Amino acid sequence: MKTVAVMALQDGMQLAEDINVGGKTAIKKGTKVDHIVKAKLEAFKLLTVQIMDAEDLAETYYEKIKVSEAFKAFQIQYKANLAAYKVAVDSFIFKKVPFRFVDLKAIADALCPETISGKRLFSYINIMLHDEGDMSYAHGLNVALICKKMGKWLRLSPEDCETLLYAGFLFDIGKFMLPNDIIWKPGKLNKMEFDLVKTHAFFGYHMLSKFGINEHILNATLMHHERCDGTGYPQGLTRDQIDPFAMMIAIADVYEAMTSARAYRAPMNPYQVVEIIKEDMFLKYDIATMTTFMNHIMDEMIGNDVRLSNGMVGEVIMNNSGAIGRPVVKCKDEIVDLSQQRDIKIIELI
Predict the structure, then answer these.
(1) Given its phi and psi angles, is residue 96 left (phi above 0), alpha (psi -120 to 50 degrees) or beta?
(2) Is there a contact between 58 and 68 (Cβ–Cβ < 8 Å)?
(3) How would DSSP label each residue in 106-145?
(4) How many angstroms separate the CA atoms of 282 and 242, rounded?
(5) For residue range 133-173, what is the model confidence (pLDDT) as tens digits?
(6) For residue 334, what are the β-bridge partners?
(7) pLDDT tier for residue 264 given thresholds of 50, 70 and 90
(8) I want to staple 130 with a disulfide (CB 3.0 to 4.6 A). Which of 134, 221, 319, 335 is the partner?
(9) 2-57, which class in CATH?
(10) Is 273:345 a contact under the CB 8 Å cutoff?
(11) pLDDT at site 142
(12) Alpha helix (H) ranges present in the chain?
């Protein structure tokens, strides 16, 4: 909300708090300003009142984020650093100029300082919409930012945290050799298209291997679509054959892809993501890494208001350690334990 002088009020503005006179409510919160309301406020000899701003009027969590001043400041920073990342990628692809890791680290530090929470950072990057030509660059940047948080959550050494960060920036470099209309096709790929997409792992590995880059980063580039049960590509490797950094990147990659906004759909919230991938968590991904990652995300959701599939609205008050993504929600005077009431799920953050 914001403070506005009574003489500057405009019709249609909404009061952000009750106006009390003589111990009684004279005008209720939410009342829209018109000439009658303004005359009453002047009669009460008020100089200023609190007015709802765009963030107060937004109904959902993501709508509130979009109109916040903090997000607007982040957008400016993000666009500048995305442009710098694009220059680095294009220079490598078209001019064979090696990546300067110090520059990549500066980009990550600018957008993901130690003070920003994972919840806020991920919410910011999830709702950013990009032009088609920028989507592959944004995906690489976003995964790198997720990796910066993930490294801390997994308690990696400082050296391994940096390795994971750089792997996040570079793992998908091979996709820049493929047509955008196939990479970002909204519908299902046909066999020929999918076979072409699968080549990006080899492309990326081949390009980076000429520059003496850390072996874990190279392996993350080659193996990030491998799955622990052997169903991945390009080599069909199993758990013991996959580089641990590739398994970490695989989780950041799929989480970013599912939670980021696209032109053809809104961003999925973390609870929706868990519902979709929970069947695969124990087979396709490193379970210890995935569990730690998801538990941290769920922990940062505590205190958030959510809408349930039965129409009820409430606050997430506690997570269930044995049921990731199915917390305890307080709805007015009722406690809903989603680990017990499996027919109900969270459909929206508000």
Answers:
(1) left
(2) no
(3) HHHHHHS-TTS-HHHHHHHHHH----GGGHHHHHHHHHHH
(4) 16
(5) 899 999 999 999 999 999 999 999 999 999 999 999 999 99
(6) 331
(7) low
(8) 134
(9) alpha beta
(10) no
(11) 97
(12) 35-43, 54-57, 61-67, 69-95, 101-111, 118-127, 135-153, 158-170, 180-183, 191-198, 200-208, 215-223, 244-259, 270-281, 287-299
d(CA 280, CA 227): 10
User: Three-state SS across 232-257?
Assistant: CCCCCCEHHHCCHHHHHHHHHHHHHH
**Reduced 3-state DSSP string for 315-349:** EEEECCCCCCCCCEEEECCEEEECCCCCCCCEEEE
CATH architecture, domain 61-268: Orthogonal Bundle (1.10)
Q: Which two tokens stand for residue 156?
A: 């990696």
263-271 average pLDDT score = 79
**What are the angstrom distances between the C-alpha of 246 and each of 4, 8, 10, 165, 291?**
53, 58, 56, 12, 16
User: From the CB of residue 347, how many other CB atoms can be counted at a distance below 10 Å?
Assistant: 16
At residue 280, the pLDDT reads 83
Identity of the residue numbered 42: E
Mean pLDDT of 313-338: 93
